[in-house]
Amino acid sequence: MLVLGAEVLLGFQYRSAFESGFEQIPPLSRYMSMAALASLLAVVVLLVSPGAYHQIVEEGHDSRRLHDFTTTMMDVALLPFAASLAISIFVMTERLTGRSIGMAFGIASLVVALFFWYGLEAIEKRNRAADDRGKYKVPDKDDGTPTRLKDKIKQVLTEARVVIPGAQALLGFQLTIILMEGFDKVPMSSKYVHMASLAFIALSIVLLMTLAAYHRIVENGQDSERFHAFAARILLAAMAPLAIGIAGDVFVVFRKITASLPFALICSTVTLLCFIGFWFLLPAYVKRSHS
Q1: Residue boundaries of the structural domains of the chain
Q2: Of 5, 200, 223, 266, which residue is the least packed, with the fewest Cβ within 10 Å?
Q3: What pTM was estimated for this model as a whole?
Q4: Is 86 exposed, middle or buried (0-12, 13-18, 19+ CB in 10 A)?
Q5: Alpha-carbon distance 244 to 148, whole Å?
Q6: Following CA atoms 125, 129, 131, 136 in sequence, which dihedral angle do they give, to the nearest 10 degrees?
Q7: CA 222 to chain centre
């Protein structure tokens, strides 16, 4: 649920920079929109990373370590999600009511999100810990039971379903951007970068949808170790062009907002490095250190 919402909002942020009304908002709001976009990028990086971690580090098996990693990524991702939501509300409200009221609405939305996403859970967890004290103890280690093949395949397909709806929504926004008036005003080089980004996102979707075709045509819908290994490889392969496509559009949007080629290039490069680092390099490092 979280990653789909984040990628849909990411698509809106990409598109907003090309709307005709975007040029009419104050400069502060334009730069705040960039901050909201950067926050959503952090959310996507964190929320998608458990899928790569699961397949690279754990090789599809369940573990307490995987559970802890996934929980941590979700807990951390909610913070930039709340920040992006608050900034977007501020930008929208400021244009209608002025900066002071817009800031008040933005801060109020941030407080509400932080309370329901962190404060409420902290209160409930503390109360439940007091009620359950002495009743049971969560084991510190796994019991060593191997994960069933059926569960491994179900999980890798679930991880693919985590990525594909947001990627499809993002592709839809990328396609509509080409038809917008604001897109005609960007440099030709940015248009080519956007086209390349669109192609990489489309490639990612094609790879992710390959799992269903392979499962039905090759395996006749049956579970097998061969299919699990294939699905894991395809899932990881699809995440690479997805990262490149998102980073490419970061370059296009940031260059349009700031009119600075070096700044946009630096931001897109940092974005790509963060995606590659969290999705591939960090799991590879963890796997090597544990082995």
Answers
A1: 2-290
A2: 266
A3: 0.85
A4: buried
A5: 34
A6: 130
A7: 31
